[in-house]
From TrEMBL:
Family: Belongs to the ABC transporter superfamily.
SUPFAM superfamilies: MOP-like (SSF50331), P-loop containing nucleoside triphosphate hydrolases (SSF52540)
Protein name: ABC transporter ATP-binding protein
Source species of the chain: Roseibium salinum
Gene Ontology terms, MF aspect: ATP binding
Stored CDD domains: ABC_Carb_Solutes_like (cd03259)
InterPro entries cross-referenced by the UniProt entry: AAA+_ATPase (IPR003593), ABC_transporter-like_ATP-bd (IPR003439), ABC_transpr_FbpC (IPR015853), ABC_transpr_MalK/UgpC-like (IPR047641), Mo/tungstate-bd_C_term_dom (IPR008995), NA-bd_OB-fold (IPR012340), OB_MalK-like (IPR040582), P-loop_NTPase (IPR027417)
Amino acid sequence: MAQIKLSNLRHSYSSSPAGDADYALKKIDLTWEDGGAYALLGPSGCGKSTLLNIISGLLIPSEGKVLFDDQDVTALPPARRNIAQVFQFPVIYDTMTVYDNLAFPLRNRGRDEETVKRRVTAIAEMLEVTTMLTTRAANLSPDNKQKISMGRGLVREDVNVVMFDEPLTVIDPHLKWKLRSKLKELHQRVKATMIYVTHDQTEALTFADQVVVMQDGEVVQIGTPVDLFERPAHTFVGHFIGSPGMNVLPCEVRGGAAFFGGERIALEGPVSGAGDGMAEIGIRPEFVSVSKTGEGIAAHIRKVADIGRHKVVEAIAHDSRIHAIMDGEAPDAGDAVTLEFNRSQTRLYKDGWLASSPEGGAR
Ligand SMILES: Nc1ncnc2c1ncn2[C@@H]1O[C@H](COP(=O)(O)OP(=O)(O)OP(=O)(O)O)[C@@H](O)[C@H]1O
């Protein structure tokens, strides 16, 4: 396994890029530590596949370098990078048994049959497919086929990185959670550097210790699932992660204080990155309290959705929509209410970027 470093990377599919808009990857500096479980998360078109193809060697970046353990591999073809990839659709040989499918990447590299047996047995046990080893792959269900495909990616001990590209796309929704948690468990046992590419926040947050969030060819935040939830560095991350995402409300900053519809809103701490002028307040629905009698911002309820464990309330205040998540009894549509924001979770954003610090010290 290896540390993978992307240094000053840019990529344009155009032969004569004029400006930033012509770059699928704008400027990426990123280190994937040896043995880490990473997710690369972002909406369609943000550049995830481009980045993956640069790591695997299918694409040579327009600018910058790819380093595996400090060795420059930017110009090396895929076959010389020693990478395992698991794709959206299972890549297995239908006519072979499960055992032979799992053995294939090892035999292909001339491993002796004793090693093949040891690795195949271990991986089959981890994936809970031992009873299927003599079954022909053609007879497997789609999720078992994808499991074997994953096993083929994990069976070699000498790869630099295992990359998963939306591996659960073809899996039935009710089986997805099983494979998701299986993958996490596999990482803990195999300890390989793994990069999991997805546009699905649940998959990313379940699998990864560190999530790299991309938007429009740039990395907007790298952090643990908790970091991304608690302290989004950009309003995009706040929106993209969470259900519903973070509320982003227009505000005016005057003398270090934030005003929403003319009302002063207490922020987590000092404003660190914005002068006077228009900015945005970010507050997650989990930290908005709704009350019929309390203090706070006057609002009215537009909708209440019961989503099982809790209710999602949609309120309108100063012409802005604000979501709140509530347990227990919720008001009804049309009710007049007041909203309070948990101060320590109320952040300021300027031009999309976090511009407030917690009380008692910047983070
Ligand atoms: N071969 C190509 N030629 C020209 N432009 C491309 C090519 N491949 C991708 N792009 C463009 O580069 C940008 C990034 O695309 P990319 O496929 O890397 O995003 P993605 O995040 O992987 O999206 P998806 O999840 O839909 O695969 C997009 O604007 C896309 O249109």
